[in-house]
């Protein structure tokens, strides 16, 4: 087992990793930009190294600075968290070239799944059901129009390198194709340096269901059920739950096995998420994330496992601490993402926290790097906390969420907390009857959000 690991991230996810390391008796090293000298992850780690100025390009994304921080402190392995360098195959290669260990999958797995066209081809070959669409990339507008007719409108044009909801455009009819095709290409180029796009049938009323998988890199892999992340704004998740309110035990077992077998086939190592759209009882693969997800705590809640601990274990060469039959679902868990943003338009709202009080009590987990007097810097993601609740069933989890939100105090900046209070009053949230478009409609109707 490692003696010391470096956490190449900030905010709540850096704390999450530091906590797991401490429980395992492993020393932790935080890295930070000059804007984050006072951040909680710096205070909580055993050691810290400043790796650059506020701009993430020059700090949290600076591979040479992170490697240097490992060399200075003697850290043997790097946990990337999510975002930043977590899905950068080049980073993994450099880490290995320096004789260090990446706590995550191999560079090859990241490369294959990071390109959505290659990912889809790979998954199809492994027997995973996919959304109907183009066979690979679509180079010209003429091809795009032909495929649009073949697949049937509406269709979605997606940048193969896309992520975070960027580089995706819907064409409702043939008339929209030119604009959607050019915009998706331009967004792919400007955001990810790659203008290759592909086309998929646009599903009109799906739920977003993702399967948590975990592999040991030696041909053994398990699934930890699904998360329903259908409540989204601009293709970004805001509320996640496990198990999915509409998924049956049979469906879970079937799709879970397909995913676990696929991961065993490719000798996948560590945590991964296979994302599907789910409509009329069918699952359609859309992409795989080769990292820990923001919403992993809901899975931890219902299975009672520590996914970060498992990541560290398998990266160090140890076995996973469970097999499929050990994994039994207990109750229901819900996570809400609390952002420093001003409603109704979700404008980022950095600033000084004048008062912070985290909720507590049975079944409540608050993953946050906030503290009284903390100044949220304007340079990074606006996620400031994740409130996760666990109950014996979905109604109990919802009631607990309302209770915990009522206890939470975040003064000094605007947050998305009022959104969740309002959502909990909606019959569709109480019954679980929503799809990926429900929240956008609700926001337009109730808040007039853009
Ligand atoms: P990203 O990598 O940017 O997160 P994804 O491929 O995971 O992109 O898709 C994100 C979201 O976009 C999905 O959860 C869903 O809401 C929507 N989406 C993606 N593909 C389709 C599709 N074929 N039909 C309908 N909605 C889609």
Automatic annotation (TrEMBL):
Domain (ATP-grasp) ranges: 120-316
Keywords: ATP-binding, Biotin, Fatty acid biosynthesis, Fatty acid metabolism, Ligase, Lipid biosynthesis, Lipid metabolism, Magnesium, Metal-binding, Nucleotide-binding
Catalysed reaction, written as an equation: N(6)-biotinyl-L-lysyl-[protein] + hydrogencarbonate + ATP = N(6)-carboxybiotinyl-L-lysyl-[protein] + ADP + phosphate + H(+)
GO molecular function: ATP binding; biotin carboxylase activity; metal ion binding
Superkingdom of source: Bacteria
Pathway assignment: Lipid metabolism; malonyl-CoA biosynthesis; malonyl-CoA from acetyl-CoA: step 1/1
Enzyme class: ligase
SMART domains: Biotin_carb_C
GO biological process, one term: fatty acid biosynthetic process
EC number(s) recorded for this UniProt protein: 6.3.4.14
Biotin carboxylation domain residues: 1-444
Function comment: This protein is a component of the acetyl coenzyme A carboxylase complex; first, biotin carboxylase catalyzes the carboxylation of the carrier protein and then the transcarboxylase transfers the carboxyl group to form malonyl-CoA.
Assembly behavior: Acetyl-CoA carboxylase is a heterohexamer of biotin carboxyl carrier protein, biotin carboxylase and the two subunits of carboxyl transferase in a 2:2 complex.
Protein name per its UniProtKB record: Biotin carboxylase
Organism in which the protein naturally occurs: Sulfitobacter brevis
């Amino acid at each position: 087992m490692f003696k010391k690991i470096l956490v190449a991230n900030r905010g709540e996810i850096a704390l999450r990793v530091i906590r797991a390391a401490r429980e395992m008796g492993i020393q932790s090293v935080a890295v930070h930009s000059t804007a984050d000298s006072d951040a909680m992850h710096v205070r909580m780690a055993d050691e810290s190294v400043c790796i650059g100025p506020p701009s993430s390009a020059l700090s949290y994304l600076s591979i040479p600075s992170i490697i240097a921080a490992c060399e200075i402190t003697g850290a043997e392995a790097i946990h990337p968290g999510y975002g930043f360098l977590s899905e950068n195959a080049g980073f993994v290669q450099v880490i290995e070239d320096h004789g260090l260990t990446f706590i995550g999958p191999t560079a090859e797995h990241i490369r294959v799944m990071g390109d959505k066209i290659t990912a889809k081809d790979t998954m199809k070959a492994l027997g995973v059901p996919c959304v109907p669409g183009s066979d690979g990339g679509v180079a010209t507008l003429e091809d795009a129009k032909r495929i649009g007719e073949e697949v049937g409108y509406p269709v979605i044009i997606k940048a193969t390198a896309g992520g975070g909801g960027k580089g995706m455009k819907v064409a409702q009819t043939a008339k929209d194709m030119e604009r959607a095709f050019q915009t998706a290409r331009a967004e792919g180029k400007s955001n990810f340096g790659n203008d290759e796009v592909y086309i998929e049938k646009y599903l009109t009323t799906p739920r977003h269901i993702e399967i948590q998988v975990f592999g040991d890199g030696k041909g053994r892999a398990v699934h930890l059920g699904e998360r329903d992340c259908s409540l989204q704004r601009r293709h970004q998740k805001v509320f996640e739950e496990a198990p999915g309110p509409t998924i049956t035990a049979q469906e879970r077992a079937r799709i879970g096995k397909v995913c676990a077998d696929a991961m065993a086939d490719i000798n996948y190592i560590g945590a991964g998420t296979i994302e599907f759209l789910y409509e009329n009882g069918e699952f359609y693969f859309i992409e795989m994330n080769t990292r820990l997800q923001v919403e992993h705590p809901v899975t931890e809640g219902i299975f009672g496992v520590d996914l970060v601990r498992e990541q560290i274990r398998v990266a160090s060469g140890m076995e996973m601490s469970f097999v499929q039959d050990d994994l039994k679902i207990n109750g229901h868990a819900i996570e809400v993402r609390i952002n420093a943003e001003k409603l109704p338009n979700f404008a980022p709202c950095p600033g000084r926290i004048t008062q912070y009080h985290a909720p507590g009590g049975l079944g409540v987990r608050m993953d946050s790097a906030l503290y009284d007097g903390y100044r949220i810097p304007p340079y990074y993601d606006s996620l400031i906390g994740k409130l996760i609740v666990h109950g014996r069933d979905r109604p109990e989890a919802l009631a607990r969420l309302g209770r915990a939100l009522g206890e939470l105090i975040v003064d000094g900046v605007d947050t998305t907390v009022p959104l969740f209070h309002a959502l909990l009053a909606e019959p569709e949230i109480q019954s679980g009857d929503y799809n990926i478009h429900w929240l956008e409609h609700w926001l337009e109707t109730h808040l007039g959000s853009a």
